[in-house]
Specification:
metal ion binding; five-stranded antiparallel β-sheet; 14% strand; Lipoxygenase-1; alpha+beta; single chain
Length: 675
């Protein structure tokens, strides 16, 4: 019996997504397959970027559609980005989401898009198609040899011979790639260079760099103690502040040294007893090699980022202020500085502390705890979860561009000769920044990226203890919304734990992840046998790639661009005596002009959104829709309703904040790590 099928096809919207190649299709169903049909309408430019085309095909009835087999003929610029195909025949309809490339001179099978666990697939041909898809992906996505990622999470193997799959590349962005932003920022900075022909003084001259760029708002208040403390709770690295019950070991501080800094009549012991003293501690830098190099002319260059720590005090006004800073761990040679010390001593101590925080932030809070720990989940998913798997459908959108930015960061920032060697204290021939990442990973578990246990561990979950902590107050509702979203989706498929145990694709995912991606002791369970553990893991990964990454990434320009606020290297060792520093000494400590330019450019690039960025709460909805079933669209809408309510709450809080905290607005949090 001959049947008429109507096929609606949408081509991707980015520049270069369309093709002039010949595209043909074979319909494969439960009782057979059609002949190959060329998709071509007379006097019509088929498959243009962002366009939908509809074709009518007459064929013998092939039964329930299982897949569409597209063939792309070779030719100039023939690669084609297929968003989806939708097929109708009479009262029947089938949806085929893809959102990937059909390369020139290739054939691709696009599986029917109904979400299904592998054990519930009934048609042998559909089972074979899922298996074939994964076999092909496993050839495209291979793990980097273990020796190449020693002490770090597993990663995708990328080389000149085996480049990043095109599906993972940035999609012809003309303005939004971070390399483009770096180049444009450096050009804008250099336009102002004639004004800076005199000897460089970073304390004074940095502000002149912003003639052609936006001036970071904190540039006018960066020396203020309350501003220094504010950055601990809503700055670029709000993950360190910890309530402590007593002075840390090796931190010599007396009541006399803090006279006038505590509430009237209050001693240090009483302040600790009242739970009003908090700690920022960058002990992780202890023993990490710092930049040290002698060039061909015999000129030596050294950089410092000490293993410093800082006490913060909660004043009667319920505002934080820095109380004391130690730029090392040895009480015999590392004095404790306080606001009662000479002006330049105290300013230098704050700058060194921010440098310590910055090096820790870049390699641990940011690179390791977001970019690198998410990558194994991307690779394991692409290798083991076929398109119709519900977990693939849930996660794929949130993995877009993560492999691309990680590859770019390794080559451009972290590898030998990369930008970090130019201006980061831990960069250089001894690879201190890599050792810092490895040290951070040795101490890390996935549980550490869950916000509520992290706040509890640091003693700052209770607003009565730390009243003004914008990161906490904005992050927790987002975690709860994500957790509900993930749980609601998975509960439709995993009615019992046995459903997860019998899911061959998820069990292969787990085996692959734990053998090549990260050791099982980094994960919350030894075996993937409970649905609650899967919900927990996937929620943490989604939170890490969206909320956590937004918090530690998108304030980089504001935080780092005015370099004296948070230099990423110091050019002199920390002071060991008080009362000797002058302003000119501090200007010689902070980054050089060249290092300053790089820090501004990198900060601006990494804090930029791409042209095609999609946010958790995206105006007009998400372009890539992997679930098409009404019940899942309803779950997504409930998730977005929660995000809308959270956006309103954030806006209300920001209306009364002296400095608004905007990076965790749901409509400004990208779905994943794209930069």
């Amino acid at each position: 019996m001959t049947v008429e099928y109507k096929i609606k096809i949408r081509t991707g919207g980015r520049l270069g997504s369309g093709t002039d190649a010949d595209i043909s299709v074979v319909l494969v169903g439960s009782v057979g397959e059609s002949e190959r049909h060329k998709l071509d309408k007379r006097f019509h430019n088929d498959f243009e970027a962002g366009k939908e085309d509809v074709y009518t095909i007459k064929s013998q009835d092939v039964g329930d559609l299982l897949l569409l087999r597209f063939t792309n003929s070779a030719g100039f610029a023939s690669d084609w980005l297929l968003d989806f195909a939708h097929v109708t025949s009479g009262d029947h309809s089938w949806h085929f989401p893809h959102y990937r490339w059909v390369l020139g001179n290739s054939t691709v099978e696009v599986l029917e898009g109904s979400a299904q666990l592998p054990q519930n697939v009934r048609h042998v041909r559909a089972v074979e198609a899922r298996r074939a898809q994964l076999e092909n992906r496993q050839k495209m996505y291979t793990w980097r040899p273990a020796v190449a990622t020693t002490g770090l999470p597993g990663a995708l193997d990328i080389s000149k011979e085996k480049p990043l799959p095109k599906d993972e590349l940035y999609r012809n962005l003309t303005e939004g790639s971070y390399e483009t932003v770096i180049a444009k920022t450096l050009a804008a900075l250099r336009m102002g260079m004639p004004l800076l022909a005199k000897a460089w003084n970073g304390l004074v001259d940095t502000i002149d760099l912003f003639k052609n760029l936006e001036v970071p708002q904190l540039a006018q208040r960066w020396q203020d103690d309350h501003e220094f403390a504010r950055q601990a709770v809503q700055g670029v690295s709000p993950l360190h502040i910890t309530l402590i019950p007593a002075l840390p070991e090796g931190f010599p501080l007396t009541d006399a040294e803090v006279r006038g800094l505590l509430s009237p009549g209050t001693t240090l012991a009483q302040a600790f007893e009242a739970k009003r003293i908090f700690l920022l501690d960058f002990e992780i830098l202890d023993g990490i090699p710092m930049f040290h190099q002698v060039n061909k002319e015999g000129v030596e260059e050294r950089r410092w980022a000490p293993a410093s720590r800082c006490l913060l005090y909660l004043e009667d006004s319920r505002r934080l202020r820095p109380l004391a800073i130690q730029l090392g761990r040895d009480p015999a040679k590392d004095p404790v500085f306080t606001p009662n010390d000479p002006e330049h001593d105290w300013l230098a101590a704050k700058i060194y502390l921010r440098c310590s925080e910055g090096n820790t932030h870049q390699m641990v809070s940011h690179a390791l705890r977001t970019h690198f720990v998410v990558e194994p989940f991307v690779v394991a998913s692409m290798r083991n979860l076929s398109d119709p798997h519900p977990v693939y459908k849930l996660m794929r959108r949130h993995f877009r561009y993560t492999l691309a930015i990680n590859d770019g960061a390794r080559k451009g920032l972290l590898d030998a000769g990369g930008v970090f060697d130019d201006f980061i204290a831990t960069g250089g021939p001894d690879k201190g920044h890599i050792k810092l990442g490895q040290k951070g990973y040795s101490r890390w578990k996935l549980l550490d990226n869950k916000p509520r246990p992290d706040f509890e561990r640091r003693g700052v979950l209770d607003p009565a203890i730390l009243p003004d902590y914008p990161y906490r107050d904005d992050a927790l509702p987002l975690w709860d919304a994500l957790e509900e979203f993930v749980s609601n989706v998975l509960s439709h498929f995993y009615k019992t734990d046995a459903d997860l145990v019998n899911d061959t694709e998820m069990q292969a995912w787990w085996k692959d992840l734990t053998e090549h991606g990260m050791p099982v002791d980094k994960l919350p369970c030894a075996e993937l046998t409970r649905v609650k553990d899967l919900v927990d893991i996937l929620t943490t990964v989604l939170y890490t790639g969206s909320v956590h990454h937004a918090a530690v990434n998108y304030l980089q320009y504001e935080h780092y661009a005015f370099v004296p606020n948070a230099p990423l290297c110091m050019r002199q060792p920390p002071p060991t005596q008080k009362g000797l520093l002058k302003e000119k000494d501090i200007s010689e400590m902070i980054p050089s002009k060249s290092q300053t330019l790089w820090q501004v450019a990198i900060g601006r690039a990494l804090a930029s959104f791409g042209e095609d960025e999609e946010f958790l709460l995206n105006e007009g909805g998400w372009r890539e829709t992997y679930f098409h079933e009404p019940e899942f669209l309803a779950i997504r809408e409930r998730f977005h309703d929660r995000l809308r309510a959270q956006l309103a709450a954030v806006n209300d809080r920001n209306a009364t904040r002296e400095v608004p905290y905007t990076v965790l607005q749901p409509n400004r949090i990208p779905c994943g790590i794209t930069v």
